[in-house]
Design a protein that fits this description.
Number of domains: 1
CATH topology: Alpha-D-Glucose-1,6-Bisphosphate, Chain A, domain 4
Structural class: alpha+beta
Shape: globular
CATH superfamily: START domain
Order of helices and strands: EHHEEEEEEHH
CATH class: Alpha Beta
Number of strands: 7
Number of helices: 4
Radius of gyration: 15 Å
Strand order of the largest sheet: 1-7-6-5-4-3-2
Length: 162
């Protein structure tokens, strides 16, 4: 099985530096990431080797995620390893989907296009098992729903910042 890849491209009416801020400033990130839930950023250090630790609260329940930055090239490129985490920020299997990849390689590119930005997000299983790749591949058609809602919120934030 070939490596499944989710790719999303979004055009924003804001320069790359502002779109970059939405990904690298915790107050802005917490507004758009995980739309429809309360997002609390516990740690945020967007440098190579730094961590972004956050909790998504859904009523009485919480889901924890851990991201480790492996490339940070302002304002053009972010690459991180994204994982579900325990309350102690240890990587764990997904509590919501059987065989979901333990870690996803996430690459975000910010390209200037006129006065705006073309942002491309690529998401792919990292060091995944065959079952994890298959689960990710089966979900590909629906992945743009959550990311898309977040990008809609980001567009609203960018309209405030421009």
């Amino acid at each position: 099985m070939s490596q499944p890849v989710f790719s999303m491209t979004r055009q924003f009416d804001a320069p790359p530096a502002l779109v970059w801020r939405c990904w690298t400033e915790p107050d802005l990130l917490g507004r758009w990431y995980g739309p429809g839930v309360e997002t609390e950023v516990h740690r945020f250090d967007p440098v190579v080797g730094g961590l972004w630790l956050h909790e998504m609260k859904m009523g009485e329940q919480s889901m924890y995620q851990r991201m480790e930055y492996i490339e940070v090239e302002p304002p053009a490129r972010l690459v991180m390893l994204m994982s579900n985490a325990s309350r102690d920020w240890e990587v764990i299997p997904s509590p919501m989907m059987e065989n979901w990849p333990r870690t996803l390689l996430t690459t975000v590119l910010f390209d200037a296009v006129g006065d705006g930005t073309r942002m491309t997000l690529e998401w792919t299983p990292h060091e995944a098992t065959e079952a994890e790749n298959a689960a990710f591949a089966a979900a590909l058609d629906n992945l743009d729903q959550g990311w898309g809602k977040g990008m809609d919120v980001m567009a609203e934030i960018l309209a405030e910042l421009v």
